[in-house]
Amino acid sequence: MRYLFLICFFCMMSVSASSQEFKYHTVKKGETVYSISKDYNISEDDIYKYNPDAKNGIDESSKLVIPLAKKDKGMPAKIGSPSLDPIEFKEHTVKKKENLFRLSQQYNVEVDDIKRYNKHLYSKELQKGETIRIPVFRKLDRVVAKPNNTSKEEIRQEFDKNEVREHVVLPKETKFGIARKYGLTVKELEALNPTVDVLQPGIMLRVGTNVSPDPVVLLDKNFKFYEVKPQETLFGLAQRFHVTQDSILALNPIVEKEGLEWGMVLKVPNPEEQDPEDWLEPTLSSEAEELQGKKLNLKDSLSNFSPKNLVFMLPYSLDNVAVDSIGTPDYDNAVLDDRVLRISLDFYSGAKLAIEDAKELGISTQAKIYDTKRNASEVANIINTNNFSNVDAVIGPLLQSTTEAVAQRLRNRNIPVFTPLSDKEMRGGNNLFIARPTQQEMSNTMLEYLQKFGEGKNIIIVADAKSFEIKNKLNQIFPAARTVNAVDGYVSEESLKNALLPAAQNWVILESSSVGVISSTVSASNRLLREELDITLFTTNKNDSYDNESISNEDLGKLYFHYPSVDKEYNIEVSEDFIRKYEEEFGVTPNQYAVRGYDLTMDVLLRLGASEDIYASFNDFNGFTEYNENKFLYEPQPGGGFRNKAVYILQINPDLTLQIADDSQSNIFREFKD
């Protein structure tokens, strides 16, 4: 069904952490910090943490920010789950073909909201004729901030008609804080004071008369000011700042009173100062991840909301698929027999979803799709007969010859070309972005990892004759390493045991593409585990031989096998929204090519939304970006163009789960293994 939808379209042209909630408390006569802490079941230190001035005493009618005590600490908070209680319920009788997604769209609620009040839907499907309860929330938590296109001159004229007052800038005050105090947006404040660029204490500003009782200066580093961007929702803000919607409302009563508006200045928790245990989504804070720099979240830096123009050039070869066969067995066989066509369809299905999600962030996109027909001459024809003057980026083609042809022909126009799947060296120019790291880059990243965390370990290098280059590099890094050589394509248990130490952490680095060498090493290592030896297995190249049926993942998991990878396994909780949307639209779980299409396209769109263009984004932001399964860290290539150098170091666990490896605390690592 997914392929039918996409073919017709072209022919017609997934954390366990509790969230922190806050509320304002107006001090009553006779109240003390101690009595207030008891009322809210928190400590006095909790109050002082968010209200440092309270140490000097509290006055009647003053306001305190209260961190509410966490409930059900054993249960993780659901990402993005609203805490607002329903104001009423509607009863809905399920009709034929209705599903939870359609009902969520019809009633403007989340699927999880429906499940929460119909518990049986966690384990059962909707049944035709059954009656379920639909929660009705305050309209506020579904409000979308709309762009305000009023010019600064029009703003000044509007304020000139009304009464204004003057404000003397105090030390440490910011435009955000002053705008918040007088109920203005930063744009409105700047329009009223066009000659003021940088704030200095003592400067007189023109402001509105709607004065908020909130303080202008944030003395508590646990909070910061944030300006609402176009199309943002209260739900999205709660998710971004890792709190509930009630917390946003408690910190900003004006939102509940007037609704969410673009440009509104909100007081929000400062993620950089929050306790990581209070965050709702994982952060890559491990030393292993920091080997490749800082993680960027471009969603927090969106500023360029002009419409984006993307071109997808993919090798469909639709001329080989008869249009009148769509929906027939001949059509199904044609798609299933053509691997490149299947990959192209899957890739664009993910890209299409990324475009839809980016729109919710305020980034609208015009996308054009061209069939390269796997032919360089067809690429030339597409570029010569279509207007590429306003194109922000080209994604594709997938194949080397057509990719080189596109990049070379668009080089003089400086249009970025992203090739998503190939890791080959390509000719093209400075406009070519190869989104997949080479095997050499993956090996080098693994070597850096081993060098960083291998100190103090008993290093054993197991290699065959063909792997002499990587063996020499390992010997340079670990001069004291012990070596076990394969003999006649086999590694004996005795030779491996002689290299192991009983009271040490033994790191076995296996370098071979021989099934026999790999299989015998893995089997011998597993048998030696029974003698209570501490063994962890590594490789710089997890090649196809590891997929042989003689090498079981169970055995690799017992050894906590570490290896470099282009992508990781998506976390169902973190990627829940993406997976749900994909399954609703296409009826299947996204495969690696669909996820790749989503991640790459989202990265391109966010870069365009955070900077003037793709090239400027690399000057504006230093670090790597990460999405469902993929991360991106583009660096210039010696021959021109850019290549993604971002690599994961993964480990297989005994329960066969995959995780990003981090041996930064390897001295206590085995305590968690046992």
UniProtKB/TrEMBL annotation:
The entry's keywords = Signal
Any Pfam family the entry gives? Peripla_BP_6
Q: So which residues are the signal peptide here? A: 1-19
Q: Which InterPro entries match?
A: Leu-bd, LysM, LysM_dom_sf, Peripla_BP_I
The LysM domain is annotated at 23-66, 90-134, 224-268
What is a single molecular function from GO for this protein?
lytic endotransglycosylase activity
* Superkingdom of this protein's organism: Bacteria
Family, per the entry?
Belongs to the leucine-binding protein family.
Protein name in the entry: Amino acid/amide ABC transporter substrate-binding protein, HAAT family
Q: Which organism is it from?
A: Zunongwangia mangrovi
